[in-house]
Amino acid sequence: MYTKVDQPVKALEVLEAAMARAAAKAAPCVQLALHAARIHEALGATDTMASLLRQVLQHDACNMEAIALLAAHHHQMQQ
Questions:
Q1: Which of 19, 27, 65, 78 is least surrounded, with the fewest CB atoms within 10 Å of its CB?
Q2: Contact 50, 58 (CB under 8 A)
Q3: Is the pLDDT higher at 71 or at 7?
Q4: Strand, coil or helix: what is 26?
């Protein structure tokens, strides 16, 4: 993946294209959205990260990674 070679913007482009293809097939793309959320977090785009995590939780309400990341985001926003 492009994040290994320090190209997060290119990684996001690839992930967004893959998520669009999965959405066209009506297949949830939970892992892709989680990875994109982590990249947005690293880039400082926490609002976009939170939006992606909410989408993940709409498809998989028990996803512990998304719950933990969203809880940490809300905790940081309150401080």
A1: 78
A2: no
A3: 71
A4: coil
